[in-house]
């Protein structure tokens, strides 16, 4: 089976390449906007917070490296499991509250 779905380049993009440190032939645009941004400190990338508390990922090339597709997908799966577990805990707490009334 082909694995072409794991890699995409948009060389005509005015920002290509948008991060330094990745060889152009390996620069992956598939995750143009990092899907791990919402995971905060647990994304595993090279980020910093601005003085106003905004996550700044300009120093991170993790989602743009050809070899990191599986890492990004696994981190997304972990984040989704945590989210599902939290949702389940909230629902259980609501049910327990209703049962007490």
Gyration radius over CA: 18 Å
Number of DSSP helical runs: 1
Mean pLDDT: 89
Structural domain tally: 1
The strand count comes to: 2
Residues in helices, as a percent range: 25-40%
Strand order of the largest sheet: 1-2
What are the segments in which pLDDT stays under 50 over at least 5 consecutive residues? none
Q: SS-based structural class?
A: mainly alpha
Q: Report the sheet-strand fraction.
A: under 5%
Distance between the termini: 56 Å
What would you call the shape? elongated
The succession of helices and strands, N to C, reads EEH
Largest sheet, strands/sense/barrel: 2 strands, antiparallel
What is the fold's blueprint, element by element?
Layout: E1 48-49, E2 55-56, H1 69-100
Antiparallel strand pairs: 1-2
Explain this structure:
With about 100 residues, the chain is mainly α. The chain has one domain (about 10-100). Helices cover about 30% and strands about 5% of the residues. It contains one helix and two strands, in the order E-E-H. It has one helix spanning about 70-100; strands spanning about 50, 55. It has a two-stranded antiparallel ribbon. The model has no long low-confidence stretch (mean pLDDT about 90).
């Amino acid at each position: 089976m082909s694995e072409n779905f794991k890699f995409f380049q948009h060389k005509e993009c005015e920002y290509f390449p948008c991060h330094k440190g990745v060889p152009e032939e390996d620069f992956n645009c598939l995750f143009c906007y990092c899907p791990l941004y919402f995971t905060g400190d647990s994304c595993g990338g090279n980020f910093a917070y601005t003085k106003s508390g905004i996550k700044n990922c300009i120093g991170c090339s993790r989602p743009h490296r050809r070899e990191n597709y599986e890492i990004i997908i696994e981190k997304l799966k972990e984040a989704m499991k945590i989210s599902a577990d939290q949702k389940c805990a909230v629902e259980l707490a609501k049910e327990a509250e209703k049962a007490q009334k």
